[in-house]
Write a structure and sequence with these properties.
Elements (H helix, E strand, L loop, with lengths): L8 E2 L34 E5 L32 H11 L6 E5 L9 H8 L11 E6 L4 H11 L3 E5 L5 H8 L6 H13 L3 E8 L8 H8 L5 E6 L17 H9 L4 E5 L8 E5 L5 E5 L12 E4 L4 E3 L7 E3 L1 H10 L5 H16 L5 H11 L19 H4 L2
Parallel strand pairs: 1-13, 2-3, 2-11, 3-4, 4-5, 5-6, 6-7, 7-10
Antiparallel strand pairs: 8-9, 9-10, 11-12, 12-13
Helix pairs in contact: 1-9, 2-3, 3-5, 8-9
Bound molecules: S-adenosylmethionine and iron/sulfur cluster (2 copies).
Length: 394
């Protein structure tokens, strides 16, 4: 039987990564306000993984040699309950969280997801604005779920689609029975339901770079914004090599040769993608350049895995198990009570304040220093036993 990749959660780890994470005593008052990490970065975005399973097997994310029928996914009872999820999301808002992204694995496989979204869509940020709720999905189940999700209060959806040609799509997703046209129908259904739509395309050299132009052309003059993502060295099962990375600069060049582009930039320092606009007014595209242009300096994202691990970096090799916190809080006060939320908010703030992560920047600096762009390098101080993206949430 394929062994499950060890779950890299450190139970009862402290914010300082030395002692134990204990919930603060009952009665503690956490005063709401922006909380910064040790590199002075605020916490703005929370990514919540609702399941570690998926109905595709993208070769760059969940290769079938590892994620096969013998692989031990989280048992149902290990997944955070909706009460625990709502508790953790609500507890993060007083720290400054403004955006929530529901992800996975494939989040549309989580039973009752619309109920969870309905609960979370009622929440307000510190600035009394609605908490912005987005979802990242492979789109396979989107056609039928788009409307119920929008009615439940979802604001936006990001659909992953790496190719238009069935042959390339099916090879990349390792899904011979799925026609990419069904994903396009899911995108149309989402737009018809009033959701703002982005499309993510991971580009891998020698695999789907020939799809860059057809994808760009397909989404020109459409409301969905296409974003190109550099293939990342996340996890440890996808055999990443930097020779498979097509840089954002190359992608821009390939498109601009046919459809001139002008740089728009980022709307704020925390935006992941850099936007470019077609000179002829056909809309915009985005570039996510984690490899060639790391953006750790503006990184304001925390992640919670489907079983309650708190991760302050996508490339983390360990997280902090929040379940003991949630259980301890629940013993003293109802999870959604003001007192219960205060206690978890204080603990989450302590974790964020201890954060120093900047993996991509370190990797980039190291590769420059060694004149080794074009080879795999691990950033100093981090092991290669990194947590998988399907587990931590993309
Ligand atoms: N299953 C959903 C989906 O595919 O949209 C949500 C989870 S998936 C892990 C989130 C995003 O991560 C997807 O857009 C996917 O393409 C991206 N992703 C996964 N592995 C990646 C890698 N090695 N490099 C770059 N992006 C990756
Ligand atoms: Fe599944 Fe998304 Fe990973 Fe593809 S990228 S295997 S759809 S979790
Ligand atoms: Fe943020 Fe870590 Fe990615 Fe840097 S490497 S942008 S700190 S998630």
């Amino acid at each position: 039987m394929t062994k499950r990749i060890p779950i890299p959660i450190v139970a009862e780890q402290s914010s300082s990564r030395e002692g134990r994470l204990r919930p603060p005593p009952s009665g503690i008052v956490f005063s709401a306000g922006q909380v910064n990490d040790r590199l002075n970065r605020p916490l703005r975005d929370l990514r919540l993984s609702v399941i570690d399973q998926c109905n595709l097997r993208c070769r760059y994310c969940m290769p079938r040699e590892v994620f096969n029928r013998d692989y031990e996914f989280l048992p149902r009872e290990a997944l955070l309950s909706f009460d625990a999820m709502e508790h953790l999301v609500r507890a993060s808002i007083p720290l400054g969280v403004r955006k929530l992204r529901i992800t996975g694995g494939e989040p549309l496989l989580r039973k009752g997801l619309t109920e969870l979204i309905a609960r979370l869509s009622r929440l307000q940020t510190l600035e009394n604005a609605p908490l912005e709720i987005a979802l990242t999905t492979n789109g396979v189940l989107l056609k039928s779920l788009a409307r119920p999700l929008a009615e439940a209060g979802l604001h936006r959806v990001t659909v992953s689609l790496d190719a238009l040609s069935p042959q390339t799509f099916q090879a990349m997703a390792d899904a011979p029975d799925i026609d990419p046209r069904s994903i396009l129908e899911g995108i149309e259904a989402a737009e018809a339901a009033g959701l703002a739509v982005k499309v993510n395309m991971v580009v891998q050299r020698g695999v789907n770079e020939h799809e860059i132009l057809p994808m760009a052309r397909h989404f020109r003059h459409r409301s969905a914004t296409l974003r190109f993502i550099e293939f990342m060295d996340v996890g440890s099962t996808n055999h990443w090599s930097s020779s498979q990375v097509v840089s954002s600069a190359t992608i821009i060049g390939m498109i601009a040769n046919h459809h001139p582009l002008r740089r728009v930039g980022r709307s704020d320092a925390h935006e992941v993608s850099e936007r470019w606009a077609y000179a002829d007014g056909a809309g915009q595209i985005g570039l996510i350049s984690s490899i060639s242009e790391p953006f750790c300096r503006g990184c304001s994202r925390a992640r919670i895995s489907a079983e309650g691990g708190f991760y302050t970096c996508l490339f983390a090799d360990q997280g902090t198990d929040l379940r003991p916190l949630v259980d301890a809080v629940a013993l003293g006060a109802p999870l959604l009570s003001a007192e219960g939320l205060q206690r978890s908010a204080a603990s989450l703030a302590a974790l964020w304040q201890g954060r120093t992560d900047r993996y991509s920047e370190l990797r980039w600096q190291q590769s420059i220093a060694e004149h080794r762009i074009g080879e795999k390098t691990n950033a100093p101080g981090l092991s290669s036993g990194r947590v998988e993206m399907s587990y931590i949430g993309g």
